[in-house]
TrEMBL record:
It comes from the Bacteria. GO terms for cellular component: cytosol. InterPro entries: DAP_epimerase_AS (IPR018510), DAP_epimerase_DapF (IPR001653). It is found in: Cytoplasm. This is Diaminopimelate epimerase. It comes from Secundilactobacillus similis DSM 23365 = JCM 2765. One of its GO terms (biological process) is lysine biosynthetic process via diaminopimelate. Pathway: Amino-acid biosynthesis; L-lysine biosynthesis via DAP pathway; DL-2,6-diaminopimelate from LL-2,6-diaminopimelate: step 1/1. Keywords: Amino-acid biosynthesis, Cytoplasm, Isomerase, Lysine biosynthesis. The active site is at C80, C80 (proton donor), C232 (proton acceptor). Catalyzes the stereoinversion of LL-2,6-diaminopimelate (L,L-DAP) to meso-diaminopimelate (meso-DAP), a precursor of L-lysine and an essential component of the bacterial peptidoglycan. GO terms for molecular function: diaminopimelate epimerase activity. The gene is dapF.
């Protein structure tokens, strides 16, 4: 028997698999098949998830472990902010340390345990970087000659300005009114840019943000490889950077920004030095279920109610109590 965990950051749900606990690690095709089977509510368990987080050892010096992110559709993401918080918690408890680095696809990132957000709501801060604006980093095309920053793109949505930031996974951001958060524009644009299209050949995560006040945002994201999500950590981080870059009177570098999302709330802090930007993403790292399963079922992508033994923790009730204590800033319902 091996143990999977169901985890979430701001209700952005994942299954966490530690390859080091297996007799034989899953191959890449097996990971793709497992992500597609397990995260699909119709074929998997526990209402599915937005992806799987694959933990492994790192061969890099001074790095505690490695995280890979497989989206629900089987595509691999270079980064996942909400997922990295839960992987940080897992590694922190496995190795009994509170501050360390985690290897991701393109960078070794600094993470640290923070004060709990509330009773039984553990929190971690994770570094979101490297930050890129050049079209090759996404890639994107047919959107002018260089970076896309606070620019009208009528072909996307008329009347809105867009900013493209890779952190390093690709994000497209627009600041909108409350109606813009609620209407069909985000779903339509996210769907269009994540099918074969002339702008983002590898797809893009699309976030619409409503400015609530000084250093305060509400962010809703349509994720590449997933669709609407309760929260996207890298999306909220990229949006916070776009906020500080394009609304200097309303957002501060190096200060905490509160980012509400359909699944709860995180804090971000955006930094700029002469040669780089980076963002701290701070939020919950919640473990909702432990799932015992035979290793053979993982290799066969056959993780079902019949092949698993599931134990629920008490952390979701604690998290929902924490969310209940937050100001109600949006009517967008949490996706189950
Ligand atoms: N939800 C994640 C981002 C996951 C990856 C994304 N779908 C992509 O393909 O880039 C987050 O919390 O950052």
């Amino acid at each position: 028997m091996v143990q999977l965990r169901k985890v979430h950051g701001s209700e952005n749900h994942f299954f966490l698999l530690d390859q080091t606990t297996l007799a034989q690690k899953l191959t890449d095709p097996e990971l793709v098949a497992l992500a597609q089977q397990l995260t699909n509510p119709a074929t998997g368990i526990l209402d599915g998830a937005d992806g799987i987080l694959v933990v492994d050892d790192s061969e890099h010096d001074n790095v505690l472990g490695q995280m890979r992110v497989i989206n629900a559709d089987g595509s691999e993401a270079s980064m996942c902010g909400n997922g990295l918080r839960t992987v940080s918690r897992y590694l922190s408890e496995k190795y009994h340390t509170n501050q360390f680095k985690v290897q991701t696809l393109t960078a070794d990132l600094q993470v640290s345990r923070q004060s709990d957000l509330a009773a039984q709501v553990p929190a971690f801060s994770v570094e979101i970087s490297p930050v890129r604006f050049n079209p090759e980093a996404f890639p994107f095309q047919n959107l002018g000659d260089g970076a896309l920053i606070d620019t009208p793109v009528p072909a996307f949505v008329s009347g809105l300005n867009f900013t493209a930031i890779a952190v390093p996974n690709p994000h497209l951001i627009s600041f909108v009114t409350e109606d813009g958060i609620n209407n069909d524009d985000l779903g339509n644009l996210g769907t269009k840019l994540n099918q074969p299209n002339e702008y983002f050949p590898d797809g893009v995560n699309v976030s619409f943000a409503q400015i609530l006040g000084k250093n305060q945002l509400f962010v809703r994201t349509f994720e590449r490889g997933v669709g609407f999500t309760n929260a996207c950590g890298t999306g909220m981080s990229a949006t916070s950077l776009a906020f500080a870059m394009t609304h200097a009177n309303l957002a501060d570098f190096d200060q905490l920004i509160t980012v509400y999302n359909p699944g709860g709330m995180v804090k971000t802090r955006v930094h700029q030095t002469e040669d780089r930007y980076w963002i701290d993403l701070i939020g919950n790292a919640t473990e909702t279920h432990f799932i015992d399963v035979d290793e053979a079922e993982l290799h066969a992508a056959n993780v079902t109610d019949a092949t698993t033994d599931v134990t629920e923790t008490t952390e979701e009730a604690a998290y929902l109590k924490f969310v209940d204590s937050l100001p109600k800033v949006s009517s967008i319902a949490v996706k189950k």
